Amino acid sequence: MNNQEKLSDNDLFLSKYSIYFLHEKPEYIEEMGNIFYNEWKDVYIAFGLNTLNDVIQDMKEKHACNHNKLPMLMIALDNNNQNLVATISLEICDVTSDNPYYNTTPWLACVYTKDEYRGEGIATYMINRMLQFAQQLNYTYIWLWTEHSRSLYERIGFHFVEKIQHLRKDVDIMRIDFNITNY
Length: 183
Description:
By secondary structure, this protein is an alpha+beta fold. The chain has helices at 9-16, 29-46, 52-63, 122-136, 150-156; strands spanning 17-21, 72-78, 84-91, 107-113, 141-146, 159-166, 169-177.
């Protein structure tokens, strides 16, 4: 295979997975709600979403119809069996009102890949895809917080801002600027 015939990383990804906004595939809301609630229960409770049903209802009301305004949620599906593979969202805010970053927006959140699909670059692809949409919406930077994935986000271009306590956890606050003259 010569260079012209060689598939790009993007083509390889899209041969295995399809990306959708949640409004295009609302049948995955309950499965996603279950994953999110199990993965980030303490975060949802801090935002007043105390039960799985609260999380699912919030997704239906706030995420299921958006693809060009916040909050928006994207999913990746396996092309072979249409299994949910990964999720990512862009939120108005992903910290509670007692956090010093409460008035900043937007936030990358809900970055999740099912265990059996990890290590294939899916999270990186999804993050880059969501960053493209954020730029199309004229955002100049994106915030996130992470407990364990700082190096992943640094490879993508996020920079470390500071380590803080958030919801009784040590987290890294990070940001990516689309206009690097800000540095």
